[in-house]
Amino acid sequence: MIGTRFTEFIPGSEGKNEFDNLLKIFLHLLTITSGDVSEALNWLNQLDQQYKLASDKYGIGDFIQELKDKNYIEENENNLTIHITPKGEQSIRKQSLEEIFGKLKKTIRGNHRTTFSGTGDEQTSEKREFLFGDSLEQIDMTDSIKNAQINHGIESFMLTEDDLEVEERDLKAITSTVLMIDISHSMILYGEDRITPAKKVAMALSELITTKYPKDTLDIIVFGDDAWSIEIKDLPYLQVGPYHTNTVAGIELAMDILRRRKTGNKQIFMITDGKPTCLKEGAKYYKNSYGLDRKIINKTLDQAAKSRRMGISITTFMIARDPYLQQFVREFTKTNNGRAFYSSLTGLGDYIFEDYIRNRRKRVK
């Protein structure tokens, strides 16, 4: 008997080839460069020169060609520009999901557990008698036939309603979520990149919902001077603009979207690092970046109260530590009866993941 063999451990060699290792770095660079393939490849070359990412046998040129061959990127007809393919966009979302949430098992039916039982999707160990209105899928045929044999005998076998047993199932809630992302100038102020972690969280959350909770809905809103919806496929290209922060416009748009959703569970996740500094009054903008403007703050709190009356909770993920801003967030949260997290950039994904998965409201429709 040979026994156990031990070999030398080579870091980075466990089941991954050079293309996979470089692809992970490249996709991260694409997120930082907002989907600019040329800039990401330039950075990759610079990193290779400094840290020798590629080997002598497999260079960055080989990696670029394989990206094209495997349809991650493509050139236009004149070979002047390179852009990401839909496969490349999905790969960025999947990597964000793995990075932030870990490897999640894909399920066909993924909704949120509640404390109620009834006609649902997931079986439990509990059994009960058949009641009018139970679906055929709930009937436990093995136990029902066993009951029929006991009650009527094998020679005169018959299956009646009294013999039927059904399996209890957990009733699951369908959740509609709007994710609001602050794209005001402060998201890159003082040399700190706050927009990249926000994009990664949005991409990971979208991938989580489409794979694990396909019955849920996710809408994504960005807000600066104004607010507008974006598609999931647009997330890698999201950039900060020379904007102020119109939180009122973002909440108004989010509530308008959720008002049209035919679900009982509705929530808003808002990622921001700064205070509301802008309102739109007709065709003009009212702006004030110096401190907390009472006019803007009161309008923002009005929206928080309105959202509460509609049964929509707002969870604020604050990536700023200024005491006066935290005080405003506390007042905003109290008005909405929502939640607030004061997160670092590295912990943002964990907070959002835990709140999305664990926050279960009792009202189910």
Describe the 3D structure.
There is one protein chain. With 365 residues, the protein is of the alpha/beta class. The chain has three domains: 18-84; 122-172, no CATH class; 174-358, 3-Layer(aba) Sandwich (Rossmann fold). Helix content is 38%, strand content 21%. It has ten helices and 13 strands. The strands form four sheets. A six-stranded mixed β-sheet has the order 8-7-6-9-12-13, with helices on both faces. It has a three-stranded antiparallel β-sheet with strand order 3-5-4.
Largest sheet: 6 strands, mixed
- How would you state the average pLDDT, rounded? 84
CATH topology of the largest domain, by name, is Rossmann fold
How many domains comprise the coordinates?
Answer: 3
Low-confidence stretches: 103-122, 360-365
Using the CA coordinates, give the radius of gyration. Answer: 26 Å
Series of H and E elements: HHHEEHEEHEEHEEHEEEHEHEH
Query: Helix count?
Result: 10
Strand order in the largest sheet: 8-7-6-9-12-13
Strand count? 13
In the CATH hierarchy, what is the architecture of the largest domain at level 2? 3-Layer(aba) Sandwich
CATH superfamily of the largest domain: von Willebrand factor, type A domain
CATH uppermost class of the largest domain: Alpha Beta
- Which shape, going by the Cα principal axes? flat
Q: What is the oligomer described by this structure?
A: single chain
* Percentage of residues in DSSP E strands: 15-25%
Helix content: 25-40%
What distance separates the N and C termini? 63 Å
Structural class: alpha/beta
